[in-house]
């Protein structure tokens, strides 16, 4: 039985690099791996995943027909894996369809994304993935301000920490990974 995976991390936790590497590992063995991202993230340009160390991967955007699309490709030419970037922006239905790809088509689906936003609230896609995924892994990085493990994302507005504003914000420059202690201290929380 194929699994639905969720690999989550904070900003700068190497997610894009990991997804590109995972895709590369399949394709160098001659195994077809389909790469998707969520249409809400156009930061990388049209249908392209970019990592901070300069790797790139062309991908499709997730749509309502994701299950049928993967099934049709799989019937012609076996699909060995599906990878999904920016999975925090998936809808509940998207995640259900991805779980059907694992369960009914027996294709592993590996999702990468942010767990929480800068207000430290779960993204919808992350919530459903945490509820449904068979395997959940944390991609680790260190706090911007100390050497502890970062577990939260801090929004910097004009260089100053804030936890107000729109939920969905794109643009790495304004977001940094922080530990819980620094998050509370810098935002003046109890
Ligand atoms: Zn810290």
TrEMBL record:
Its main location: cytoplasm. It is found in: Cytoplasm. Its EC number is 2.7.1.21. The active site is at residue 86. It holds the Pfam family TK. Substrate binds at residues 168-171, 175. InterPro entries: P-loop_NTPase (IPR027417), Thymidine_kinase (IPR001267), Thymidine_kinase_CS (IPR020633). Homotetramer. HAMAP family: Thymidine_kinase (MF_00124). This is Thymidine kinase. It comes from Salinicoccus cyprini.
């Amino acid at each position: 039985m194929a699994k639905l995976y969720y690999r989550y991390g904070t900003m700068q936790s190497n997610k894009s690099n990991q997804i590109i590497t995972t895709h590369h590992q399949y394709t160098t063995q001659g195994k077809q791996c389909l790469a998707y991202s969520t249409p809400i993230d156009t930061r990388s340009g049209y249908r392209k995943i970019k990592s901070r160390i300069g790797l790139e991967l062309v991908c499709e955007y997730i749509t309502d027909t994701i299950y049928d699309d993967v099934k049709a490709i799989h019937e012609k030419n076996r699909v060995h894996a599906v990878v999904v970037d920016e999975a925090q922006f998936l809808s509940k239905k998207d995640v259900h369809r991805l779980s059907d790809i694992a369960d009914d088509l027996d294709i592993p689906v590996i999702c990468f994304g942010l767990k929480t936003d800068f207000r430290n609230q779960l993204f919808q896609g992350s919530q459903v993935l945490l509820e449904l995924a068979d395997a959940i892994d944390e991609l680790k990085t260190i706090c911007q301000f100390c050497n502890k493990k970062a577990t939260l994302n801090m929004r910097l507005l004009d260089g100053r920490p804030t936890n107000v504003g729109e939920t969905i914000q794109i643009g790495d420059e304004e977001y940094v990974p922080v530990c819980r202690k620094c998050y509370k201290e810098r935002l003046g929380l109890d």
